[in-house]
Design goal:
The chain has helices at 19-22, 183-188, 199-202; strands at residues 8-9, 14-17, 33-36, 46-49, 51-55, 63-66, 76-77, 87-92, 97-100, 108-111, 115-126, 133-137, 149-152, 157-170, 173-182. With 205 residues, it is mainly beta. The chain has a single domain (8-202), classed as Thrombin, subunit H (Beta Barrel), CATH 2.40.10.10. Strands 8-11-12-15-14-13 form a six-stranded antiparallel barrel. A four-stranded antiparallel beta sheet has the order 1-2-6-5. A hairpin with a 6-residue loop joins strand 11 and strand 12.
């Protein structure tokens, strides 16, 4: 058992995360799933399996699946362009840990705590390795946060998906920036979970 990252849904069953979080083959008795709270923020976490999980057919580091869960507050996929200098926010589950289960010592239990982060879009650029548009963020994006939604500040509009962070060094100073898949990459994502349609088109059905 392992915790791979963060995921989110638009409320109608489509789950989005990063492909690098779920790309590893599983044994026959294993499956990928998400921890959800069906009764609200004070309810215990429950395991929810991910069906029709697969990589974005366009080859981006995005994965799409289906989950049987509807959150209390629904996110929407942004229509407009992402702008340099926009204030954005995210939330997810960085720094997860597997610890011995108190009731079943031979098994592991998960310890994870949600974190909220806020920052700016500091740069809109092209990833040199994939040649896809990405957003640089003035925001920490530690391990476990991959797959988290990048949301316009104080709104519910998703404009990207966190996938890693990179370090810039000049002289004796080191600065860490977050990186996220651009809105256009997310809008174009497609797979079995969207019946082969681009995510933006599928969510309008």
């Amino acid at each position: 058992m392992a915790v791979a990252g963060t995921g989110f849904t638009f409320g109608e069953g489509t789950l989005v995360t990063c492909w690098h979080c779920v790309r590893y083959p599983l044994d026959p008795n294993e499956l990928y799933g998400v921890a959800v709270r069906r009764g609200g923020i004070d309810s215990p976490y429950e395991f929810c399996s991910i069906d029709n999980l697969g990589q974005d057919d366009n080859g981006a580091d995005l994965a799409l699946g289906r989950v049987d869960w509807t959150p209390g507050r629904v996110l929407t996929l942004a229509d407009g362009e992402v702008h340099w200098g926009e204030r954005v926010e995210t939330y997810g589950y960085p720094f997860p840990a597997a610890v011995p289960d108190e009731a079943y010592p031979d098994y592991k239990a998960l310890k994870f705590y949600p974190r909220f982060l806020r920052g700016y879009v500091t740069q809109l650029t092209i990833d040199e390795s994939t040649e896809r548009p990405v957003m640089e963020l003035e925001m920490l994006c530690p391990p476990g946060l991959s797959g988290a939604p990048v949301i316009r500040e104080d709104r519910r509009e998703v404009v990207g998906v966190v996938f890693d962070e990179h370090t810039t060094t000049m002289s004796d100073r080191t600065v860490i920036f977050g990186r996220a898949h651009h809105l256009n990459v997310l809008r174009a994502a497609r797979g079995i979970a969207t019946r082969g349609r681009a995510l933006a088109d599928y969510l309008q059905l």
